[in-house]
Amino acid sequence: MELARGDLPTVATPAAMCIRSLEGINMLLRLLVALDREGITRGHAWRAEGKSQVLSHLIRVSSPAASDTPEAFAEQCQGLRIAAQRLVELGVYAPQWARFVEHALGWPGAAEGMWWLHAHTKERGWYLEQELRNAWQAEISEYTPLKSDDLLDGAADVTWFKRVHAALGPERWRALYDAAKFASSGIGHSRARLFADAMLGQLNEAETVQRIKTKRHQDSVRALGLLPITAMGDGATQVVLTRYKVLQEFLRGAKQFGSQRQASEKLAVRISLQNLARSAGYPDPIRLEWAMEIQALGDLVDGPISISADGVTATLSISPLGEAVLAMEKAGKPLKTAPTALKKHAQFVALKEQQRDLVRQAARVRASLEQAMVRGDTFALAELQTLVTHPILRVMLAQIVFISTDGAAMGYLVKGGKLVSHDGTRNAIGKRAILRIAHPLDLLGTNEWHLWQQECYRNERIQPFKQVFREVYVPTRDEQTVSDQSQDHSRRYAGHQVNPRQAAALLGARGWVVRMEEGASRTFHDEGLVAWVNTTTGFLTPAEVEPPVIETVHFSRRGEWLPLPLTQVPARLFSEVMRDMDLVVSVAHVGGLDPEASASTIEMRTAMLRESCGLLKLSNVEFKGSHALIAGTLNRYSVHLGSAVVHQQPGGFVCVVPVHAQHRGRLFLPFMDNDPRTAEVLSKVLLLARDAEIKDPSILKQIVRVR
Asked: In a designed cystine with 222, which of 117, 154, 183, 189 is the match (CB 3.0 to 4.6 A)?
């Protein structure tokens, strides 16, 4: 009825606007033919009744059927004489058809280009049906490592754009460029076009800078970081530094506005810095920020900064853990809080703001260093020697084990360009050496992993993230067996039920993209691989009766669906994916299986307890399977190393309630990650090993004294 209608709505119009899914090439092409004169109407109109609006909505919610092929689509388009321009508009408006449109046009790279436009034309307020939105975001995640939130904020994937433009050529790219408006409902397409012009060198840098200074145009701020860097060597460094200074000056000017305007301008600068890093060829945007912020830290590079006002001295310094600490004293006595008069002092306000920036920067640095290890990023020795002048990086890099890419040396980086091993041996490396952050698999391969752990405890070394005591996962014998049932997937977590929203949040924080009816995926762009976790009902679906059950984990090449044999998956990626899954089944678990029985987690806690007991000279603790067995003075105890549940023998369960707070006494953990369960396990074992010293009456009255 809607296909045959005129300008006036029909009785079926409201029902048509409520349709959320259509399948098949035939239906799509009938809709396109019916729109021949009006053309596609972009955007979303609530309760729209116009012919073009209704038919455009139906096109957007349509999708290929399982039996549809690009060849059949191309043949039917040719028979109906659908114009190339209309096909381009279709692919940009409904990118689920992009692969079919690319085949019909015969334009290699067109599908990627259409997805690039979709990724870069969206803003925070854009609307799309949630199911379709999730599907589009999942598809985009296979093309770019950028998070969806960063794309919404204005980040641009330079490498992806260059790949698309090279494949299409200027003329075909222009056709997509002109159709960009169909990818947005507002002015998002203007942003995408601005970014594309910037990356193609079609923006004048002087005019862009002038627009930033006079009009404070935020998209121009973002675009500044995308302008090509044509200079070489020191010239390129100078270009980057000049643009960095423009951004910092813009940021300083934001202080004259209200809080909301300040927040939006700070966001524009943060995104521009990320864009500038990608344009300059840095593998991680924060690597550029490190290099540039060394210039911006000023006096803090040389030591603490102090100011004095109204008889109070405030000092900003970097702690041995790489944290920014602001201490105050008056007449030689420390103050817990700043006096009211000092809080209004301009110098103190600036110092307090610098501390907040450094705290946020430290969190970003820790996360970035961990991701650099996971990705296997390499560092030139000269780059590391420059980075250690950064006060936060200097502290963190000193606690990380590095390995040369040729495997000849491993250790902590010290002055003079040497790596110190666990036994104190200093290994010299060449000035042109290339290093990377050692993964625990590297330590495992040396058969000296336990010695590195001992050194960590012996020197009370606190790493910025779990490295030496990180859980490692290797393929089991069944997973390595070549058979039709097990060669291409892992079932080690099969049967675990998880809370869907909690699992989705955990996975999302670690770079996974939730696919509502399929499970979740994580793309490793450098390796061109995608990890998949399959569940019975997917995540975030209306399946309220039973939570989703994890079935399998498998890997495939990006853009393909055929699972890879697990033996072909890099060991580092396999371990990290299984570590993510272990986290999900441990934290988001809702079923009847014991989620705390992960072998890798148990092994790490056993290793930490063994080293702690050795340092404290506790000989009454032994380890059997997943339990620590303690021969106390009052009784014997068993502590589960996964759940931290305590039993006495005889006597049964003992309730020891942990204090989950930021300050957990003086218990030493060799990493800065927030791991309260590990802290709980260690504290209970060490407490019960010295049960004669327990003073807490609530614990003592539960213990059955048999000695």
From this structure: 154
Whole-number mean pLDDT of the chain?
A: 83
Model confidence at 671, pLDDT cuts 50, 70, 90, reads low
Structure tokens at 276: 């500038």
pLDDT above 60 for 592: no
- Those residues whose C-beta lies under 8 Å from the C-beta of residue 683, and which sit 6 or more positions away, are 658, 664, 665, 667
Check whether residue 187 and residue 209 sit in a common domain. Answer: no
Handedness of CA 465, 468, 469, 474 (dihedral sign): positive
Q: Is residue 503 part of a domain?
A: yes
Q: Which amino acid is at 575?
A: S
- Residues 190, 42 within the same domain: yes
Residues 316, 300: contact at Cβ < 8 Å?
A: yes
Q: Looking at the domain assignment, is residue 269 inside a domain?
A: yes
Quick check: is 314 in a domain? no
* Phi, psi for residue 408 in degrees, rounded to 5: -80, -25
Pick the last residue of a domain from 179, 199, 219: 199
Q: How confident is the model at residue 674 (pLDDT cuts 50, 70, 90)?
A: low
Nearest to 614 by CA among 686, 684, 691: 686
> Of the candidates 690, 442, 450, which has an alpha carbon nearest to the alpha carbon of residue 575?
442
State the amino acid at position 653 in one-letter form.
Answer: F
With a CB cutoff of 8 Å and minimum separation 6, the contacts of 497 are 546, 547, 548, 549, 550, 589, 590, 591
Question: At residue 219, does pLDDT exceed 80?
Answer: yes
Total structural domains within the chain: 4
Tell me the sheet residues that pair with 623: 628
Note down the domain range covering 261: 205-281
Q: What is the pTM of this model?
A: 0.68
Q: Spell 165-176 as b/e; 16+ CB within 10 A means b.
A: bebbeeebbebb
Residue 524: which residues within 8 A CB-CB, separation 6 or more?
Answer: 375, 530, 531, 573
pLDDT tens track for 525-578: 778 899 999 888 766 555 456 788 888 999 998 877 788 988 899 999 999 999
The tokens describing 103, both together, are 């085949």
Lowest mean pLDDT, pick from 164-168, 411-415, 595-599:
595-599
Stated length of the chain = 707
Pairing of strands 621-624, 627-631: antiparallel
Residue closest to 574 by CA, chosen among 466, 407, 440, 379: 440
Q: Are residues 118 and 267 in the same domain?
A: no
The answer to whether residues 361 and 300 touch, using CB atoms and an 8 Å cutoff, is no
Q: Is 322 exposed, middle or buried (0-12, 13-18, 19+ CB in 10 A)?
A: buried
Task: Answer yes or no: is 603 within a domain.
Answer: no
